[in-house]
Amino acid sequence: MHVNCRDAGPHWTHLSLYPDPGRLLGTRKAGRQGRRGNLLARRSHARPVRLRPALAALSNPHFDHALFPLRTPHTEYLPRYAEVFDALELAALYHDPVPSQRILGWAAQAPPGFRFPVKLWKAAVDPRSPVVPTGRKTRLGEPAPWAERALAHATEALDALAPLRRSGRLGPLVAQFPPRFTADDAHRAFLARLLGRLGDAGPAAVELRHRSWWTPATRHLLEEHGVALVWSTYDGAETPPWATAMFGYVRLTGTARPRRGRPVHVRDRTEALLSLRAALADEPWDEAYLVVTNGFEGNAVDSLPTALAAVGLVEQAVRCRRAPGRPLFPEPPAGKPFMTGAG
């Protein structure tokens, strides 16, 4: 793959990706009616691709204190992070749908163009969530009672995002389903209804973690609603690289677990990165998010340099290579102000 990089500061890294002769994947179609032709037309020539790399949290302990020096004030987290990145996935909202004052403060601090993709509340996507009791068994064709409750929780979660939406910093909504959410009739019917609500609320993406979903019917459903399929590296359910919306969403994730309670690098997933690079060479988007999580190799901060270099973000990869024992974002040079951006 040939890569052209042009530095645009910490925001909107521009790339031109030319298809690799040995790419693993064929052509893709995408979008609702009218989008498919536009996407396919862009594939016959090289074009700028805007990638937004991101982490899924800013909690220092979450990364074994690899982000900031100890005792760094929380008010400095986002300004330091935004010196390198222009997106941050709010994975915390998967557990609590109401943005905290800290998150709202980050939205006020974020520079122009910064985006916060949001993981949808688990009560809206997990039938076995304690918040969504499964209830009695249903007859064929009868709506599952948990589905009605989950859809109501989805509406509640979307309403709670109003402050972020008003800030102009809200990114795509990401519905991450658990591996037990298989492609049976009840789940398919529920997914179709949920996609309708997400599509009406703005850009949205869906992460499915079971192979039973990789069928033409699933792809058609996503395209019909213009919802992106999250390209996930989750173990045992790696997603097909379908382009089903006008933007892309990639999550480098998996089942890596902390070692002795510490999120340290425990795996090497070079093959997954090579497959991702080959797939991105043929994608049709103008914009794509690339989220690196601890589950990918053990510690997302230590995975960043390799992951960013693999997709051609060479300059950011160099900036994300930390010295052993040192945090990624140390104290700024004397006299260098923190980035506060516009509210």
Structure description:
The protein has one domain (26-267, 287-303): TIM Barrel. The model is unreliable at 1-46, 133-143 and 333-343 (pLDDT under 50). The longest helix has 17 residues, at 185-201. α4 (145-160) packs parallel to α6 (185-201). By secondary structure, it is an alpha/beta fold. The chain contains eleven helices and ten strands. The chain has a six-stranded mixed β-sheet. A four-stranded parallel β-sheet has the order 4-5-6-7. α6 links the parallel β5 and β6.
Outline, from the CA principal axes?
A: globular
Rg over CA atoms, rounded to whole Å, is 20 Å
CATH class: Alpha Beta
* CATH level 3 topology: TIM Barrel
Alpha carbon gap, first and last residue? 39 Å
Number of domains: 1
Counted by DSSP, the helix tally is: 11
CATH superfamily: Protein of unknown function UPF0759
Helix percent reads: 25-40%
For the largest beta-sheet, the strand count, sense and barrel status come to: 6 strands, mixed
Reconstruct the topology from this structure:
Elements: E1 3-6, E2 13-17, H1 35-41, E3 48-55, H2 77-81, H3 101-109, E4 116-119, H4 145-160, H5 162-167, E5 170-176, H6 185-201, E6 204-207, H7 216-225, E7 228-229, E8 231-232, E9 247-252, H8 270-280, E10 287-292, H9 294-297, H10 300-310, H11 314-319
Parallel strand pairs: 3-10, 4-5, 5-6, 6-7, 8-9, 9-10
Antiparallel strand pairs: 1-2, 2-3
Summary tags:
alpha/beta, TIM Barrel, 30% helix, disordered N terminus, disordered C terminus
